[in-house]
Write a structure and sequence with these properties.
The protein is built from 19 helices and nine strands. The chain is of the alpha/beta class and 478 residues long. Bound molecules: guanosine-5'-triphosphate (GTP) and magnesium ion. This is Guanine nucleotide-binding protein alpha-4 subunit.
Amino acid sequence: MPTRVARRPMEDIDPFANAIAPPQNETPEDREVRMQKERAAKQVSDAIDAELSKEQAYEKKRPKPVKILLLGQSESGKSTTLKNFQLLYEPKAFRAERGSWRAIIQLNVVRSVHIVLDAITRAQNPHDRPPSERSSISSQDSFRIDAELLALKMRLVSLLDVEKLLMKRLSVPGEVEPTERPMTSLSRRHQPKEIAVNSSVAWQGAFRRNGAATSNDGDNMIDWDDPDDPGVVLHSCRDDLKRLWEHPTVQAILDKQCIRLQESAGFFLDSIDAVTSLRYIPTDDHILRARLKTLGVSEHRMRLSDPTGGMSRDFRIFDVGGTRSLRAAWVSYFDDMDAIIFLAPISAFDQVLTEDPTVNRLADSYKLWTTIVASKLLQKTNVILFLNKIDIMHAKLASGIRLADFVDSYGRRPNDFDSASRYLKKQFNAILKQNSPAPRIFYCHLTNAIDTKSTKYVLAGIKDMLMRFHLQESHLIL
Ligand SMILES: Nc1nc2c(ncn2[C@@H]2O[C@H](COP(=O)(O)OP(=O)(O)OP(=O)(O)O)[C@@H](O)[C@H]2O)c(=O)[nH]1
Ligand SMILES: [Mg+2]
């Protein structure tokens, strides 16, 4: 027969039970008050539990978020496309960051000035060039750098300090790294550092004034009274900057060294008055043109309305860094994507990768596109191609740069934009047909990602299409 063991009361052995046990000398009235309180507390707790399980059931029923991954080589326009999404669907949040973009634009200006100053130095000392370039030096490479230009050069060296200051402020540990090897369309040239960022959140925080709440315009993020504000120095240099940029010798030097600064990322020297004004706040257009290289992967969430009038959807857009060394990280995002937007900057047909000057940028885009469309992980994913930077493509072809000189197969076709873009579109389509594991639709857009108006229609179309796909998958529409 089992023996009954006398049990010690819980409060003797459990310090927690001991702590919450009613006082030993509790009167019946006190007990009643306590019980009432406990009943009320339980009611609140039950209500919270019920709310939580309702939310969980709703989450389960809610459609999964629509996921979009932006891919393409560095400087193809991925982050710019993301900015367009933000401007279109979250304009308030986009504009609240104006203050942070102001600093990036200031850095972009300083970087352009460095490129110009370096070009002048090379023109002064043509024999200081690397051995690979020395054989091509001719007597015409020596320019007469007059005293005015030399004085300008000396004065603008002060901008180096502005750059250092901005870089320091941006250097949130682990989040922002100034890269040693910059990425610009100016290949084969020695260029100053380019600023790069790991995630979208931390670097913007670096410019948030202590205690300042973000306003719709983001202008209260800027401490206008700060004497160290880089805007003060830039403002004082504005006339010199304009004189430098408009100087005929400078233009001739850049021309001779094949530096097309106007077509390069983060070019603002044509907007010096605006960008160096004392109370400069970037416009939407300037933010789209600002260049900030992406290092890591950043995820952006937004809630978008349904074109059929149904419930809105969560969208997640993933922006990755496109430099070669960062591409290995892409594959871990292939799983579970609804769409890939692949950007190929077709204007880069006459350029090479900065990370490998033996590789033509268009050839690199073809190769990347082949890998993406051939991936088994992505065979059910909608793949949308943006043939981007068509504005630069137009200008290049019009200036006489011949596609056939860089793409042998283009042969004797006319060197106009329509023929060239039609041809490139066919090439990308052929790659898709030959390499896709299963037949798929070729979605292709000719885009200019710094033109908000045209990009808006393209993105709205993609959003509607993806929502429809998503609804069909959830069997919500037939
Ligand atoms: N003119 C012109 N400039 C563009 C276009 N698309 C992007 N840009 C500019 O090109 C530069 C590079 O664009 P990003 O969006 O930063 O390129 P990315 O693909 O994100 O580059 P990584 O972050 O290095 O992978 C920016 O200064 C943009 O403003 C375009 O269609 N036309
Ligand atoms: Mg980017």
